[in-house]
Design a protein that fits this description.
The complex is a heterodimer of chains A (97) and B (147).
Chain A lengths: L4 H11 E8 L2 E8 L4 H11 L9 E5 L22 E6 L3 E3 L1
Parallel strand pairs in A: 1-4
Antiparallel strand pairs in A: 1-2, 3-4
Chain B lengths: L2 E4 H15 L6 E7 L8 E3 L3 E4 L2 E4 L1 H14 L1 E9 L8 H5 L9 E5 L13 E5 L5 E4 L1 H4 E4 L1
Parallel strand pairs in B: 1-10, 6-7
Antiparallel strand pairs in B: 2-3, 2-6, 4-5, 7-8, 8-9
Classes of the chains: A alpha+beta (97), B alpha+beta (147).
Chain lengths: 97, 147
Amino acid sequence: MSATAEDIARHESKQTLHLGILYNGIRKEVEINRDATVKALLDRAISLFGNIPQPHTLALWTEKGVELTNEQETLKSAGLKDGESLILRPSAVKGGR
Amino acid sequence: MRYRLSAALLAETFSLFRQCGGGRRECQVLWTSSWDDPSNISGVVHPLHSAHAGGFEITSAWINYFWLELARTGRGVRAQIHTHPQEAFHSSTDDAYPIIHSEGFLSLVIPDFGLGAVGLDGAFLAEIDPNGQWQEVAPEDRLEIIR
């Protein structure tokens, strides 16, 4: 039996994550495949917010405060869920003489 | 962008520096405004941080909390303000670890742990340029204090 267009659409829908990205008080939405890497999501997230001149200083964190440190990990294995919001922020904020 | 902030908000900023730093430790606050009216600074936020005479670091868990709060209230950070023990300048640490990395973000450094007169005399203001580099800018070109 061959898969119908509806079956394929359902399968692709299950493969897609709809995530919210928060940066400096703004929330933007991103759709991305569950098999994409954390690095791919990070790049997409940074591009959503226009000109961020030093993007390598930013990382993604879950709302529960866990940093997604393994950039080669897939979103599925990182445990991300459809509809989840992620925080785009610097890993460290400090200053001094 | 040129931001407007009240003299009362500037006074609150200095008051926080004096209470928290006690003339012995650096301290940082953040100026925020609504995304509906970004040029009108209307909030002073005092982050949870560790500090000593030569520096400070914001608590990581607090940043997560703050990011969620900004999104919930529709506000954004426009400037970070922190003290130095003596002369105000932008150090390499200040350059490398700001809370916001976007073009136009401001970083204001206040001398003498903020123990001097409330105002911008002796202060150093830097701004992120389109290439991600910090450039010194005149405080009066970016900040208007409303009496």
